[in-house]
Design a protein that fits this description.
193 residues, mainly alpha
C-alpha cells in the first residue's frame, strides 16, 4: 500500500521489517519476495546500486532454493537496469536467461514484459525492425490474455517507440508492429534471443 501511494521510503522500511521476520522463520519464498520488493523501493528512491545488489542476492538465493520464478524476475530487473543505463550488451544475456525461464514456467505476462525489455535494448542497438515486431507480439499476447500494462512497462515501451521513430516513419512503424502481432509468443522469444 505504501509503495502504491508513492511512499517508497516507508515501503522500503516495511519490507526490511518483513525481511527480518521471514528470515527468522526461515521462509525462503517470502524472504525472496521481501528482498525483491525492497530492491524495487530502493530503485524508486534512486538507489540503483542498492537495488542491483538486492536483485543479485535474490538471484543467488533463488538459485540455491530452487525458485526459478524469483530468479527469473530479478534477472529481468538486472537486465533492465543495464539496458536503461545504455549497456544493452550486458543486459541481453541476463534477459535471455530470464525469458527462457519464464517461458518454461508458462509465465506469459512476464514473457511479454521481457519482450518489451528486449525491444528497448534492440532499438538501442539499431535493430529497430526486430524491436518493433517484438512490441507487436507482446501487444497481441497481452490482448489474448486480457492483460493490461502497468505504468513502468508502458514507459519502457513508449521510450522504445520514441527511439524507433527516429529511424522509421509512422507508417512503417505501424506496419512492422502489425507484422509482429502475427508472431506466436514462442516465435517472438526465438526472434528476441
Amino acid at each position: 500500500v505504501a509503495a502504491e501511494a508513492g511512499e517508497f521510503a516507508r515501503g522500503r522500511d516495511l519490507f526490511i521489517e518483513a525481511l527480518a521476520a521471514f528470515r527468522a522463520e526461515e521462509d525462503s519464498h517470502y524472504t525472496l519476495l521481501a528482498l525483491r520488493n525492497q530492491a524495487w523501493m530502493e530503485y524508486e528512491l534512486g538507489n540503483q546500486p542498492g537495488a542491483t545488489a538486492l536483485h543479485e542476492e535474490v538471484v543467488e538465493l533463488a538459485r540455491a532454493a530452487g525458485n526459478p520464478r524469483m530468479e527469473a524476475s530479478s534477472l529481468g530487473a538486472l537486465a533492465e537496469y543495464r539496458i536503461l543505463d545504455g549497456r544493452p550488451h550486458e543486459g541481453l544475456p541476463l534477459l535471455v536467461r530470464s525469458t527462457r525461464m519464464f517461458l518454461e514456467l508458462a509465465e506469459r505476462i512476464e514473457v511479454t514484459i521481457n519482450l518489451r525489455r528486449f525491444a528497448h535494448a534492440l532499438v538501442n542497438l539499431h535493430q529497430t525492425d526486430t524491436a518493433i515486431r517484438l512490441l507487436g507480439a507482446a501487444d497481441a499476447a497481452d490482448e489474448e490474455m486480457g492483460a493490461g500494462r502497468v505504468a513502468w512497462v508502458r514507459d519502457l515501451e513508449e521510450a522504445a517507440v520514441a527511439m524507433a521513430a527516429r529511424e522509421m516513419d509512422e507508417a512503417t512503424l505501424a506496419r512492422v508492429r502489425d507484422e509482429g502481432r502475427r508472431l506466436t509468443l514462442a516465435d517472438a522469444v526465438e526472434l528476441a534471443v
